[in-house]
Amino acid sequence: MANKCINPIYSNPDIAGIGIRINFYATILLTALTPENEYTDELLDGIYKNSVINGLGLVITAVVQTMERQLDLYHAIFVMQIIFSLNFVYDYGQRRFIRSNKADFRMKTFIWVQQFTTVVFTVWLLYVWIKDVDFGSQRSCNNLVKYVLFFASVRATATWLRVLFITNLVITACALLFSLSVIVSAYVKRLRTHKYEKLANAATEPSSIQPPTPPSQGQSKRENDIGRTALRYVHFSVL
């Protein structure tokens, strides 16, 4: 009886609550349907920032519940699917930032938070699939969890499925490193371009100290006439 699933899988509103699901569906829908132009830049940036915050909160909740042995395999797969889907929003937001020439500190902060979330999620998910059968608070029910792959339901504890996900995580980790290198190189290139532009502008700007302009010939003659008149007036006064 110890190896049989007696109790059903408990609900977990912190992971799969109605608010979390509505927010997730709305984020994906708005990202897919919103055109990219000058009028929707703020909306798309807001959607990206919202997805980063939600993803971070979901991953932290999953990690904490895993450490406290409160998370089961079913809800761990639920977290995996949400973060995998949010990667579409993450990649879209990063590409928009790299293409733009904005030096937005807040957007940079969100990108680094998203990268941190992805790293933590990758390590956590690797632990989930390594444990697999022995993972979670309801281990006896893990063999009942089904995963839909290409319209076919398979057991989440199948060995080949676990190997497939671990391989995917390794590839994802390599892609993450490549993404980080692209972001850093783009940022460094932007800094260099900005620095060169400042130096070029400083070199082409006229000097603020102007050399004295030599007096014209007419002005010199007029000053000499004024001097002679004043000298005559002085002589006349003395006489």
Task: Describe what this molecule looks like in 3D.
71% of the residues lie in helices and 3% in strands. It is mainly α and 239 residues long. It has one domain (13-200). Strands 1-2 form a two-stranded antiparallel ribbon. Strand 1 (146-149) and strand 2 form a beta hairpin. It is elongated, with a radius of gyration of 35 Å. The N and C termini lie far apart (138 Å). Mean pLDDT is 78; it is low at 230-239. Residues 202-223 are annotated as: Disordered. The chain crosses the membrane at residues 73-90, 110-130, 163-188. Keywords: Membrane, Transmembrane, Transmembrane helix.
Question: Nutshell version of this structure?
Answer:
The chain crosses the membrane at residues 73-90, 110-130, 163-188. Keywords: Membrane, Transmembrane, Transmembrane helix. The protein is mainly alpha-helical and 239 residues long.
Total of helices: 7
Strand content: under 5%
Estimate the helix proportion, in percent: over 70%
Backbone shape: elongated
**Which oligomeric form is depicted?**
single chain
The CA-CA distance between the termini, in Å, is: 138 Å
SSE-based structural type: mainly alpha
What are the segments in which pLDDT stays under 50 over at least 5 consecutive residues?
230-239
Which radius of gyration do the C-alpha atoms yield? Answer: 35 Å
> Any idea how many domains?
1
Tell me about the biggest sheet? 2 strands, antiparallel
Order of strands across the widest beta sheet? 1-2
